[in-house]
Write a structure and sequence with these properties.
The protein has 389 residues and is mainly beta. It has 3 domains: 47 residues; 119 residues, Sandwich (Jelly Rolls); 152 residues, Spermadhesin, CUB domain (Jelly Rolls), CATH 2.60.120.290. Helices cover 8% and strands 36% of the residues. It contains 2 helices and 26 strands. It is globular and about 65 Å long. The structure holds 2-acetamido-2-deoxy-beta-D-glucopyranose (2 copies). The site of one 2-acetamido-2-deoxy-beta-D-glucopyranose has 3 residues, from helix 1.
Length: 389
């Protein structure tokens, strides 16, 4: 049957390993530029030299269930055999095809695309005390795992950004990811599989802290040859022409926790260093980043956010750039109009950059001294038309 005859392309397994600690912006940007050129080279190479293989009985036609969940179009019997739930029919030429949705919880594993990993009791909350793990093994021709946090609500970090009460750790993939906690609904990450090795996701919760934990992570396998694959160096990858990006655990309201020196804590997670990339849209040559107009604390990255006149928070005048930013900061490469590519402090003006790839780096150190009540950042982005020549 032709619907099972899926031709897969075996590309190069490209496990981009990059240095985790990069203290110099120009070095960091250069590293990513080289990696992205390298990836283009690899793409050509896989296209030219690697043969086609036919892998039988891989049904990987995606579908969407009536309630909006991602599934795979299968005959009802195979869906059941795979432990999936038939959720509406799907539009292929075959008879009796169903949109098969996989939902699994603690202790599970999968090699099937579009699997949802939830807390036990989901959609009800989990009150903590246990550890819950899930493992994803790639099939042939798969290079990346995209994890969409449809819901991810865990206990806030300490005031210094350490996930000590609850922690989500993801191991086995590349690059490595710091433990996550707090509110991350709507965030996502991309990881490279390392060869055919699995990626493990583990949520550890402290039963001593009463809190309604909730998670539902959509796990999508991305083929090596797919246009959906994130470029090397991008832990996050946004594909819309405009949208918003934010730091992990960004949210309204301060962290109730205190820093080690007893001041109001930060929502920023400690020891992060990653790229947030944006896919260039057709005929778009630059990106402008700006603060959301109604979210006053949307750029509170270093400094004392509680001591400053609320009318000034967010404005460029209370922002800092360049060598003044050494602990927590973002990098927007080659900003238009010159000036430093590093930003921190309690505000930021609009920044436009035409450097490729379109990327914002975020770096945080291990504590929040002497910062007070920081939230991290949330920036709107908008791609701009190429100038007429
Ligand atoms: C950053 O790296 C560039 C290029 O390697 C070098 O010229 C510059 O001196 C470095 N700056 C710092 C502060 O290390
Ligand atoms: C996995 O599913 C997603 C949609 O949920 C799709 O974009 C992706 O191409 C699928 N991967 C493969 C290898 O079919």
């Amino acid at each position: 049957m032709s619907r099972w005859a899926v031709i897969l392309f075996l590309g190069v397994v490209h496990a981009g390993v990059r240095a985790n600690v990069l203290s110099n912006s120009s070095v960091l940007v250069e590293t990513v530029r080289q990696e992205s050129e390298q990836q283009i080279v690899d793409g050509h190479r896989s296209g030219r030299f690697f043969p086609f293989y036919t892998i039988g009985r891989i049904a990987n036609v995606p579908c969407t269930s009536p309630s909006g969940l991602s599934g795979t179009c299968l005959i009802a019997g195979e869906c059941k055999d795979n432990g999936g739930l038939a959720s509406g029919s799907c539009s292929t030429r075959t008879n009796q095809a169903v949109c098969c949705v996989y939902t699994k919880s603690c202790g599970g594993s999968t090699n099937l695309n579009s699997t949802y990993f939830t807390n036990s009791g989901y959609p009800g909350p989990y009150n903590g005390g246990g550890t819950c793990s899930f493992t994803v093994t790639p099939t042939s021709g798969i290079c990346q795992l995209r994890i969409d946090f449809r819901t991810l609500s865990l206990v806030q970090p300490t005031g210094d950004g350490a996930c000590n009460t609850d922690r989500l750790t993801i191991t086995g993939g590349s690059p490595s990811v710091v433990p996550l906690c707090g509110e991350n609904t709507g965030q996502h990450i991309y990881l490279n599989f390392v060869g055919s090795g699995p990626i493990s996701i583990r949520v550890a919760t402290d039963g001593g802290s009463s809190f309604n934990r909730l998670w539902n992570m959509e796990l999508s396998q991305i083929a090596c040859a797919s246009a959906e694959r994130a470029p090397v160096g991008c832990l996050q990858y946004y594909t819309d022409e405009s949208g918003e990006i934010s730091s992990f655990n960004y949210g309204l309201g301060a962290n109730p926790g205190l820093t080690t020196v007893g001041t109001r804590g930060s929502r920023q997670l400690a020891n992060t260093n990653y790229g947030i990339c944006i896919r260039p849209a057709a005929a778009r040559c630059s990106v402008t980043y700006s603060l959301p107009p109604t979210d006053r604390y949307a750029f509170t990255v270093t400094g004392d956010a509680s001591a400053i006149d609320p009318a000034l928070v967010g404005t460029a005048g209370v922002g800092m750039t360049g060598a003044a930013c050494t602990t927590d900061y973002i990098i927007i490469p080659n900003p238009t109009g010159g000036g430093s590519d590093r930003y921190c402090g309690l505000g930021i003006g609009d920044v436009t950059s035409s450097a490729r790839p379109f990327v914002v780096y975020t770096v945080t150190n291990g504590n929040e001294t002497p910062d007070v009540a920081n939230r991290g950042f949330r920036l709107l982005y908008e791609q701009n038309a190429c100038a007429a020549v």
